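User: I'm new to structure prediction. If I give you an amino acid sequence, what do you actually give back? Let's try with this one:
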Amino acid sequence: MVAKAAAVNLVPCVLELGGKSPCVVDSSANVTWAAKKMLNGKLGNYGQTCIAPDYILCHESKKDALMKEIKDHFKEGYRDSASTKGKAIN
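Assistant: Good question. You get back a string of structure tokens that encode the predicted 3D arrangement of the chain. For your 90 residues, that looks like this:
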């Protein structure tokens, strides 16, 4: 409908039709590597990419380790944000 309305008015448009992007973590996964890659994919461009991970399908045996790694990598990447909140950054 959007493309049709744009065409009638000769207005160029691009439609982003990204779908859902799961991350699959099986029993043989290296959770440290997986967590880093997931965060890079999700947080790159503030998560506004069509291939940003939307959800995780994780083998039960890796769940706890993966969650710990995700939390650790997130804290590492954003460790200064709490201390600079509301302050100018030079």
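You can read the tokens as a compact description of the fold. Here is one thing that stands out. The first helix runs from residue 2 to 8.
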